[in-house]
Automatic annotation (TrEMBL):
Signal peptide: none annotated. Residues 13-188 form the CT398-like coiled coil hairpin domain. Residues 204-236 form the C4-type zinc ribbon domain. The keyword Secreted does not apply. InterPro entries: CT398_CC_hairpin, Oxidative_Scav/Glycosyltrans, Zf-RING_7. This is Chromosome partition protein Smc. PANTHER family: PHOSPHOLIPASE C-BETA-2-RELATED (PTHR39082), SCAVENGER RECEPTOR CLASS A MEMBER 3 (PTHR39082:SF1). It comes from the Bacteria.
Length: 240
């Protein structure tokens, strides 16, 4: 295989590589309906987590208040019994003060827990509402996920078939040329080979659109050696 033929095959190899790149990119591009369904699901998950967190906090505070209320009831009962058994007015007054303090705190907690109970009921309703929305959304999301998995699998099968063709073609090209091409391609956004275009003012590299010195263009058209673009570094080919 002469140099010109090798470059022609190398350009064909690049076309196959670019096609493989497009397949990989397509695999990663989610369908819009799946992206919307995932975003909706994530939004519902976040909303559910918030309501559940708020509910746990309210329930904990409610239980703490209820425990203190129960303790206050017991203390009030003991204080009232002690007041009944008190012998003098002074002792009666002391217990009265204690009873007033305990009663004040008891009423305060009762006042706090009544709206807290209502908030707990509201949050429980919100949790159930969001769970219902998630239950409704889940089948569609699963359907879209399955369809996307099948799409990705089909693309993977296509990729592997085209990869085998690509590797078979690469095996017919001198290994040192393929290695050089792959190194350039890696650093140049997937394009290691560029055609040379004849223009009114001379010749241009179609990879970077920079005008080529005449001596460089002549070497490309002679096809006796590998020539790299002095601007972008791509391997240059004169085309068919």
């Amino acid at each position: 295989m002469n140099g010109s033929d090798a470059l022609a095959e190398l350009f064909r190899l690049q076309e196959k590589d670019l096609e493989l790149d497009r397949i990989r990119e397509e695999q990663g591009n989610l369908p819009e309906d799946l992206k919307a369904a995932r975003a909706r699901w994530q939004s519902l998950e976040a909303e559910l987590a918030k309501h559940q967190g708020d509910l746990r906090e309210q329930e904990m505070e409610y239980r703490q208040n209820e425990a203190e209320i129960a303790d206050l009831k017991e203390k009030l009962g003991r204080a009232k019994e002690a007041q009944r058994q008190a012998q003098g007015a002074r002792e009666q007054t002391q217990y009265e003060n204690v009873i007033q303090q305990l009663t004040g705190r008891y009423e305060e907690l009762e006042g706090l827990n009544e709206p807290k109970f209502e908030e707990i009921s509201r949050l429980e309703g919100e949790v159930e509402r969001v769970k219902a929305l998630m239950a409704e959304a889940k089948p569609k999301l699963e359907e879209l996920e399955a369809a996307n998995a099948a799409r990705v699998e089909a693309l993977e099968a296509s990729y592997q078939g085209k990869l085998a063709e690509r590797n078979a073609l690469a095996a017919t090209i001198p290994a040192n040329l393929v290695k050089e091409y792959e190194a350039v391609r890696k650093s140049r956004r997937g394009q290691g080979v560029a055609k040379v275009a004849r223009t009114g003012s001379g010749y241009r590299c179609m990879g970077c659109n920079v005008q080529l010195p005449m001596n460089i263009a002549q070497k490309v058209y002679q096809g006796n050696q590998i020539v790299r673009c002095p601007s972008c570094g791509r391997i240059m080919w004169k085309g068919e």
